[in-house]
Write a structure and sequence with these properties.
Layout lengths: L5 E7 L6 H9 L6 E7 L6 H11 L4 E5 L7 H11 L4 E6 L3 E2 L3 H16 L5 E10 L5 E3 L2 H4 L22 E4 H7 L9 H12 L1 E13 L16 H19 L5 H11 L6 H11 L6 H10 L1
Parallel strand pairs: 1-2, 1-4, 2-3, 6-9
Antiparallel strand pairs: 4-8, 5-9, 6-7, 6-8
Helix pairs in contact: 6-7, 8-9
Length: 300
């Protein structure tokens, strides 16, 4: 079978409660030249039974089902999916969300327009807003971006510390997949790393309307909850480690000033106390929001 123009990359893990709604929403897409590429991350419930049943009912829609039985966690599971993919347009998919019927069509069309403008050899990413709902699909926030007070038009340097791209709301091209993956060990998350790479070496387009229901529940790994002060020091460590691997992989492509900025962030985890605060101020290693940066200086 020829590869569809879009491959939807779905990582599952004990998702029997949510999968029927997700799969139904995929079946209702207005753009139908897509296939589902699935990797199960070691489910112990009825997830595999549901997936095999869906495969039997929609054999033309399944590009592959990766069943190695290992529990890798979401970021490495999605990395495996990208590495196994073949389509020119890829979309991450979470098992507990519900896609609006026009999601694939709008994001695919936007990505093709970007390729016409910038060229297919440029890493390109499209992402949209999300509507936040609870377990029962009761609306919690019309706009995830407003809920989190995101500045989605931030400069490329801001992506080193601020991620405004949500994986399940993205579409990206083959060039982005090839450049960003496989995922480095110290990348913070698959979507965060992809956005960082596309912001620095390609283009990111934001679609300002929600294209899916982003479900929040007790089993969410990350979710939509606003960032908290606790664990701030650990996040500084993670930002710094990610900057270090970014420098290792792409350092030769960076201009001098950009190299120095990434190098400064990479070195942050080796400093403590007042030296760390001086380093943040000197190199302007800031996040979005005044209060957030005050907390960074006080508690990092």
């Amino acid at each position: 079978m020829d590869t569809s123009r879009v491959q939807i990359l779905l990582s599952t893990w004990n998702g029997e409660r949510w999968l029927p709604e997700l799969l139904a929403s995929l079946e209702q897409q207005t753009f139908q030249d897509w296939q589902l590429l699935i990797r199960d991350d070691g489910s112990t419930d009825q997830t595999l039974r549901l997936l095999l049943k869906w495969q039997a009912e929609h054999p033309e829609k399944l590009a592959g089902l990766l069943l190695d039985g290992k529990h890798l966690g979401s970021k490495l599971s999605f990395s495996r999916l990208v590495e196994a993919s073949t389509a020119p347009c890829l979309m991450f998919c979470d098992q507990d969300d519900v896609w609006f019927p026009e999601k694939v069509a709008l994001q695919y069309t936007a990505l093709r327009r970007m390729e016409a403008q910038y060229g297919e050899d440029v890493p390109l990413l499209v992402h949209s807003d999300l509507a936040v709902v609870d377990e029962a699909r009761a609306l919690l926030a019309v706009s995830f971006w407003d809920y989190r007070n995101f500045d989605v038009e931030q400069r490329k340097q801001a992506y080193l510390l601020n991620n405004v791209v949500t994986g399940c709301a993205t579409a990206f091209n083959r060039t982005a997949a090839t450049l960003a993956f496989p995922l480095p060990l110290y990348a913070m998350e698959h979507d965060r790393w992809l956005a960082l790479v596309c912001a620095w070496f390609g283009q990111i387009l934001s679609l300002p309307h929600p294209l899916l229901l982003y479900r929040q529940h007790d089993n969410n790994l990350i979710g939509a909850a606003p960032a908290q002060l606790h664990g701030l020091s650990a996040r500084v460590e993670a930002w710094s480690q990610q900057a270090e691997v970014f420098l290792h992989r792409f350092g030769e492509r960076l201009e001098v000033q950009d190299y120095k900025l990434v190098e400064a962030l990479a070195g942050l985890r080796y400093l403590q106390g007042w030296r760390r605060r001086q380093h943040i101020l000197h190199h302007r290693l800031f996040k979005q929001g005044v209060l957030t940066n005050l907390a960074l200086l006080l508690f990092a």
